[in-house]
Amino acid sequence: MKKTIHVSNQGATLDTSRRNFLKLSGIGLAVAGLTMIGCTDDDDFQMPGNNQIFDLGTGDVGILNYAYALEQLEADFYTKVVNNFYSGISSIEKEIFTDLYHHEVVHRDFFKAAISGVTQNVLPKLEFQYTNVNFNDRNSVLATSKALEDTGVAAYNGAGKYISNPDYLVIAGKIVSVEARHASAIRNLINPGSSDFSGDDVIDANGLDLAKEPKDIVMAAGGFIKTSFTWKERGIN
């Protein structure tokens, strides 16, 4: 059966009078046009029983759950940042982190709604850990944010080739463009006025953002994720 999934941005209250970088370039993509059409609810799924580790699934469902896991992580991280800003944070940094928080919450909630509308194989709420992150230290928070945003961009770029539903691919393209803006904004906070937004560590020889395989992404982000899951289709056990 075909379904259409809509996600409202009512939960993400934003001050649209502030004309900062993220407002102008990102928020329109963050909360607008997040609609999936033509989804089917007969995708393969396997509900985990007691003491079973959740598997992300196969095909597009697996990709959606994968993206949902990453968006859960980013939303959780920025929730912690904005609930207890580090000492000495500037007003501009507060604005940027608050914007990033709202964007990631919208992305997270969108994926949850979208996946729930097409399958019962929905990744549960994950638990995270930040063993090496000092949320009271500016450098630690910015370094972690940079790592998460760079990883998110590379994750979407690497997963695109596995998406078969064109509607999903359009959505992934919208969201990854927002994530790239996040990454640029954080790099500018770390090194203002520099060209770090297009550094060799994130841009390849062809001038394109790096793309990484899901297995490499999960390995990189795994230190933050306490809840175990597998993605057998992509060799993640």
From TrEMBL:
The keyword Transcription does not apply. The chain crosses the membrane at residues 21-38. InterPro entries: Ferritin-like_SF, TAT_signal_bac_arc. It holds the Pfam family Ferritin_2. It comes from the Bacteria. Keywords: Membrane, Transmembrane, Transmembrane helix. NCBIfam families: TAT_signal_seq. This is Tat (Twin-arginine translocation) pathway signal sequence containing protein. It comes from Chryseobacterium phosphatilyticum.
